[in-house]
Amino acid sequence: MTKIGIISDTHGGICPDVFNYFKGVDAILHAGDIGNEDVLIELEALAPVYAVRGNIDFFEAGKTLPVKRIESFEGVRFGIVHGDNFTRSALPDQLISYFADDHINAIVFGHTHEKYLQKAANIWLINPGAADPRIKKSCNSVIVVEVNSGKIQKIRDVRSGRVYGNENLEKLEEI
């Protein structure tokens, strides 16, 4: 079983509780708008970080980040993109189209600052929301995903405390 922390839109800071929520994760996916190198350094103290460049990531290390990346954990393929080049009203279709040739199981994105968790075309679309400490309504907005044997086994919305596992994962609607 591999635990993956998912975060986005930190804008140069991290809510303190995120460090507790991500304790014990095996990897962290950051969907951009990191804000500065300190955020990457702090997260990397917890686990390896796989990040993409967002529309505010003009710091030195941020400029070298890809805008799109694919990562695989225990046979589950994650496509990661910030999402600033997509239209909100057509987001699911555009995200799925963007990763159409990549044979992925889940797409992690950010930019909207709004939590989004839905399955479309048999692909999980996951936006953890903004984890910027200056945005109080979304501080600590992160997701932890557990994968095993080529399947997403559990999705935990840390802020709300909701856990989606075997019994309710397939029935999950947008939250």
Structure at a glance:
The chain is an alpha/beta fold and 175 residues long.
Summarize the helices and strands and which ones pair or pack.
Blueprint: E1 2-7, H1 17-21, E2 27-30, H2 37-44, E3 49-51, H3 60-63, E4 68-73, E5 76-81, H4 91-98, E6 106-108, E7 116-120, E8 123-127, E9 143-148, E10 151-157, E11 162-164
Parallel strand pairs: 1-2, 2-3, 5-6, 6-8
Antiparallel strand pairs: 1-9, 4-5, 7-8, 9-10, 10-11
Would you give an account of this structure?
The model has no long low-confidence stretch (mean pLDDT 92). It contains four helices and eleven strands. By secondary structure, it is an alpha/beta fold. The chain has a six-stranded mixed β-sheet, covered by helices on one side. The protein has a five-stranded mixed β-sheet with strand order 4-5-6-8-7, with helices on one face. The protein has helices at residues 17-21, 37-44, 60-63, 91-98, and strands at residues 2-7, 27-30, 49-51, 68-73, 76-81, 106-108, 116-120, 123-127, 143-148, 151-157, 162-164. The protein has one domain (2-164): Purple Acid Phosphatase, chain A, domain 2 (4-Layer Sandwich).
